[in-house]
Amino acid sequence: MMPDEHEGCDDDRHPQPGSPIFEAILENERNRRHLGQRLNTAGNRVNTDLLGDIVRHGPVLEALLEEPLDRREIEDRLDVSRATSHRFTQWLDEQGFTEKVDGRFQLTGRGEVVAEEVLRFEANVHTAQKLTPLLDVICEDHREFVVEPFVDATVTVAEPDDPYRPVERFISLVQETETFRGFNTTHMAPLALGGFHEQLFDATDTEIVYLPHIAEKLFDTYPERAQKAIENGYLALRTRNHLPYGLALFDECVGIGGYDETTGHMQVFVETDAPIAMEWAERVYNSVRADSELLDSRNDQTD
Q1: Of these four, 26, 71, 150, 214, which has the most CB atoms within 10 Å of its CB?
Q2: Phi, psi (deg, nearest 5) at residue 147
Q3: Strand (E) positions, 140-212?
């Protein structure tokens, strides 16, 4: 899900800039479906054989990205033969990716960019593989999911013999946090789980965005406690007519829940404390929040 035009805005509606790296990720995500057209317009598409060769030389590009190396150091670092290191360095030189300085091979500016992009490609493929249980259950309207921030995420999947593993993991994080914000979280913790909602009502500074009928169910299930939590400032309840997957922001990490649309049960919970992922989550949450309505009481549901 990509942030919309309201996300990341302050009270004066001026966009709040993110980190340069994060902004670059978002820009790449916005443009990725048009990259083929832009490349065709620019002409001279990169030969697929060359792309394959670049990926195959990923290990040596990565090694040289860390520091310049001589041929013996390349052999030791990559555990390859002299003949192999010679082929590596010859190919890199032919492509203009390296230059030899004081007996060591160092990446050119072009080589550094290519090396970084190879690593990014590998990281994104790795992350997509790891997040398969989540990506497979996110509804099609929200396929534009930014995977880069979740390269080191922990994935908890429901198993036939332990279907509540994702829910239990989510609840354990709620118990450790002092603040909680999120949307569509009933798939992470159904309203019947009293312990979870007691935590939100009594011990946690909470703001949640629910679908209108879910907010109504919350008041039906906990009529007095929900109203009291709102009046005491422990709970800010908002509604929105459409919500994607479940998103939860804790004090020190962010979590995403993917659920079965037929049963409503959470199938997978993905969590990470990576700063860039938390920045992404803040932007997405602010986008959804800006398009939601605050409820002061149950009566707001029927006004």
Answers
A1: 150
A2: -85, -25
A3: 154-157, 179-183, 205-210
